[in-house]
Specification:
Blueprint: H1 3-22, H2 37-40, H3 53-64, H4 86-98, H5 109-125, E1 139-143, H6 146-161, E2 175-180, H7 185-193, E3 201-204, H8 214-226, E4 230-237, H9 249-259, E5 262-266, E6 291-294, H10 296-299, E7 307-311, H11 314-321, H12 331-335, H13 354-389, E8 393-395, E9 403-408, H14 412-425, E10 431-435, E11 438-444, H15 452-463
This protein binds pyridoxal-5'-phosphate (PLP).
């Protein structure tokens, strides 16, 4: 493709995306295809000769779109959002255009330095403690996902708990990890991948707000110590996936400090709210944390994938993950004056993901980000009010932010039927969880283009029938 062809087809592709976003509400939010339906439309063999770009674009409409669940639809209220925005899409496009692989500072200094700078901006935006910034002992790095961030936290904690011998084999006491029963599945996955073993993960009981009970955590730690095991890491959650429950980080942090245990705080969705001063309290106790993560790819208008991972002390993370073969040696790294992010995560290679975050923050401005977040929270609160006022429904958990967990009082079957009717209609998409053993609907307001009108119409459809 010549630069001129690229210009022409690039405009077509941008137009295609703009047209898609303009007509997105015409599609059923949840894709209605059957398994195998999309593959059946694809030719069995790849083309021998190249095809015109127009033919490729046409198949987006004919083949791909029917198999899309429209995460960018303003009627998407399922799971947590994976929202995006124009500046983010364009930032990612520029990233592809530059095609940089930023494993080392030297392989594109801007890739590293823009990332460091934008992550320091983020630390200020979110009110993170000073030690998480790059001019202190710690710093931030963009990871693909919160799952990877949690894995890196576990690996760094393992390094610290074994006094730097985590990468050597040999018999040693088992290391133990702790998280609440409501923690994300990525904690268990991280514990398995890091080799701690699922049997060394303790699921700590929660209170009636689904938040971790610090007294139960302290008991579990004491039991493990008595048995000769080494408590290594506690993963606290600010905004659990089921119900946005907030673990009491200040109390958990005090226990971790006393016991010398790594504290990781997973704020994948909820952390974004701390951009607004009135939600900063979500980050109470973070000065006691060793690591923290938030996903701009959930609620900060930045397309997947983009997780911001912070450590208060970068040394154990880098010790755990740095391997230096001859072919990566270079003067800049040896000078010690630069950051090589390859040592801050599992992969070697990395793309210029900071661009999209930089574009987003500059396009919206802090005030623009705050306005969107405040609206989402306000509309979710309004929706919760409607649920509470309807005698057929009940709220299943408190609503600290933008997620409403609710259900019909009639029981599991009625709620499953309601969810099937809503999602089958194509008009809205909600997901579910189980709270207190009961089938519960989740309604999360967080898509970039959702308006109050969309929330009102969704409630009308939920109520009807
Ligand atoms: C969504 C979520 C995750 C996982 O996010 P990925 O970035 O997809 O790995 C982890 N923790 C919490 C609390 C979440 O809500």
């Amino acid at each position: 493709m010549t630069p001129d062809e690229f210009r022409r087809h690039g405009r077509q592709a941008i137009d295609w995306i703009a047209d898609y976003l303009e007509r997105i509400e015409q599609f059923p939010v949840l894709s209605q295809v059957k398994p195998g339906e999309i593959r059946a439309k694809l030719p069995p063999k790849p083309p021998v000769e190249g095809e015109p770009f127009e033919a490729i674009l046409r198949d987006l409409d004919d083949i791909v779109l029917p198999g899309i669940t429209h995460w960018q639809s303003p009627n998407f209220f399922a799971f947590f959002p994976a929202n995006n925005s124009g500046p983010s899409i364009l930032g990612d496009l520029v990233c592809a255009g530059l095609g940089v692989q930023g494993m080392l500072w030297a392989t594109s200094p801007a890739c590293t330095e823009v990332e460091t700078h934008v992550l320091d901006w983020m630390a200020d935006l979110l009110g993170l403690p000073a030690q998480f910034k790059s001019d202190a002992t710690g710093g931030g790095v963009i990871q693909d996902t919160a799952s990877s961030a949690t894995l890196c936290a576990i690996v760094a904690a393992r390094e610290r708990a074994t006094s730097g011998r985590s990468n050597q084999s040999g018999v040693r006491s088992p290391l133990v990890a702790y998280a609440s029963t409501q923690a994300h599945s990525s904690v268990e996955k991280g514990v398995r991948v890091a080799g701690l073993g699922s049997e060394n993960l303790r699921f700590i009981d929660v209170d009636d707000r689904y938040a971790m009970r610090p007294d139960r955590l302290a008991d579990a730690i004491a039991q493990d110590r008595a048995a000769g095991r080494i408590p290594a890491i506690v993963c606290a959650t600010v905004g659990t996936t089921s119900s946005t429950a907030i673990d009491p980080v200040p109390e958990i942090g005090r226990i971790c400090r006393e016991q010398g245990i790594w504290l990781h705080v997973d704020a994948a969705l909820a952390g974004t709210a701390a951009i607004c001063p009135e939600f900063r309290h979500l980050h109470a106790g973070l000065e006691l944390a060793d690591s923290y993560c938030v996903n701009p790819h959930k609620w900060m208008f930045t397309n997947f994938d983009c997780d911001c991972f912070y450590v208060a002390d970068r040394a154990p993370l880098i010790r755990a993950l740095s391997v230096l073969p001859e072919y990566l040696r270079n003067r800049a790294s040896e000078s010690g004056a630069v950051i090589d992010y390859r040592d801050w995560h599992v992969p070697l290679g990395r793309r210029f993901r900071a661009l999209k975050l930089w574009f987003v923050i500059r396009w919206f401005g802090v005030a623009g980000l705050q306005q969107k977040i405040r609206q989402h929270v306000a509309w979710a609160q309004e929706f919760a009010g409607w649920v509470a006022a309807d005698p057929r429904f009940e709220l299943a958990a408190s609503v600290p932010l933008n997620l409403v967990c609710f259900r019909l009082r009639e029981g599991d079957e009625a709620n499953q039927r309601l969810l099937d009717r809503l999602n089958g209609s194509g008009q809205v998409y909600l997901s579910h969880t189980r709270l207190d053993g009961k089938f519960t609907l989740r309604f999360c307001v967080g898509q970039t283009n959702t308006t109050r009108g969309h929330v009102v119409r969704a409630w009308e459809q939920i109520r009807a029938g």
